[in-house]
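Batch job 17 of 40 flagged for manual review because the log was empty.
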Amino acid sequence: MKKATGLATFILLSSFLVFSCATQVEKAPPPEKGTFSLSATNAQLAYYPVTGFAYKSTIIPSGSWAQWAKNAEPIVKGIIDKIPDGYVLQVTGHADSSGPEQPVGNKPGNIVISKDRAVAVYEALRQDGVKSNKMITKGVGSSQPILGVDTRSGKQRRVTFTIVPK
């Protein structure tokens, strides 16, 4: 008798669980065409980092920049033009984990190097005609590494773009 009662309870609870999980949850409608979606825009920007910086260098490699400007700059410019009030495009410089984060002696430190990389890309954008009061720069040193890549790898030396609150 105990087995039958336990089995009946199990079936009843399982049915309740299946029924409650099967009810439809209303999803938000997709954004209307021409509207701004922060998460979708940041996901798109993630595909366009500026890469190829030499060790401790803030000079944008000319070959990398020419290719980036041809493919990505029009997309970034288009996104800047659509940024809603209260948001800005953050140009973020990154460094590998070699060397200290803060200045030590005659070493500028990863924070300074990454900030200078962001400024170099910002200035290159302005020289190419991408001028907006909705762009800011930030250096994060090696604090935001690419997951799955050695933190001392040259792939960590990059500049990325994200839309952030002002």
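Reviewer: the log was empty due to a logging misconfiguration, but the result itself is present. The longest strand covers residues 158-165. Unflagging and moving on to job 18.
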